[in-house]
Amino acid sequence: MTNNKTAESRVESGEVWNDFCDALKQAGELINSPKAPQDPFNRAEGYRYLARFLRVGLESFMEHSDPAFPTLRCGVHETIKMGADNPDNYYQSASIDPQYDYRIVGHRGTVNYLGVGTVINRYNTGGGMKTDGFLDSRHMDIGDDGSVEIILSQTEQPGNWLRMSSETNSVNVRQTFQDRQREEKAELVIERIGAEQDRPEPLTPQKLDRALQGSVQFIKNTTGLFEGWAEGFLKTVNEVAPADQDFCQAIGGDPNIYYFHSSWELADDEALVVEAKQIPDCQTWNFVLQNWWMESLDYRYHRIHINKHTATYEEDGSVTIIVAHRKPDHANWIETAGHNMGTLCWRWIGAREHPPVSAKVVKFADL
Questions:
Q1: CB 307 within 8 A of CB 356
Q2: Closest residue by Cα to residue 272 from 195, 330, 314, 224
């Protein structure tokens, strides 16, 4: 890391920006990975994927990196996707430091699921994400008016306490909807307890240098990490295969979720029939279709996911889902949105049992 004087000279000479651009160019080599698809469509999505990560990196390291003045922000949404994101989720995170204590306050809302976790996030260096402390709304003390307060600290506190360790560097919030049109998301803010000043110091050359370096390091290491996951999932094609749950938790999975991860590939005249014969007692479940880069497909304009609330059930309580390029005569159609291959994910959320989910490829004409 550069010192103050070196950072000043790097900014004056323009070296700080040139290095950033050169490193960004190197990050683009991800698209040329031997296992990545090389057709123009998937390569175009790959470059968009990198551009989206650049937005995340700059927001994280340039605008919201100060743990003395944390902000809960939504970094993954309709146009920024990563790591098999869930379209039913509203994701938030904030940078924190275990030398401080924090308070999250706000209103619970009516969203079906609310989970808050302190984590050791090592994505920036190509590592995983370890959960230190975790609370979900079922185990929170919530006021009659929906008000909620959570204390984050290394020392246990009364009420809603979220544990921090000496390595904690982030807090993550997951809100999972079953019906976004009717449910209200929780409105939460985070503040450092005992802050002696109410605003951060102005930008310095060292902060700029550190932010640009951190942003591009995040792009290179995190996209490389996710590429490794995708290549692992691609080994199982057109099945809904249980994932390694320990691995899922090591990379930041929700402790209340049992994950299935695999891949799909369909010719123009084919469809994938996904069947869940048994639906366990659970908070919710969902199925999501993704591209090769593990981004959920465009759910703004296409129906690419389905959950416990939006699904139509068979008379015996089971669920059949049809993944196809065009609309079949079936209520649970998942659109491929112009894709012929990618990854997929099934989640059992808050379930004690995790029954298998089957899948088979058929000709569309034979549905």
A1: no
A2: 330
Domains recognised in the chain with CATH numbers: 4-192 (no CATH), 237-366 (2.60.120.600)
What average pLDDT does the segment 214-223 reach?
A: 92
Q: Residues 6 or more apart from 142 whose CB is under 8 A from it? A: 108, 148
Q: Do the beta carbons of residue 43 and residue 58 sit within 8 Å? A: no
pLDDT value at position 333?
Answer: 98
pLDDT score of 162 more than 90: yes
Q: Give the number of C-alpha atoms closer than 13 A to the C-alpha of residue 328, restricted to the C-beta side.
A: 24
CA Rg value for the chain: 22
Number of alpha helices (DSSP H) and beta strands (DSSP E) in the chain: 5, 16
Q: How far apart are CA 306 and CA 344, in angstroms?
A: 12
How many residues make up the chain in this entry? 367
- Determine how β-strand 319-324 pairs with β-strand 270-276: antiparallel
> Is residue 233 a contact partner of residue 253, using CB atoms and an 8 Å limit?
no
pTM of the complete model beyond 0.90 = yes
Between 155 and 123, where is the model more confident?
A: 155
> What pLDDT is stored for residue 122 in this prediction?
86
- From 303, 360, 364, select the one nearest 334 (Cα to Cα): 303
Burial (CB count <10 Å: 0-12, 13-18, 19+), residue 103 = middle
pLDDT at position 34? 86
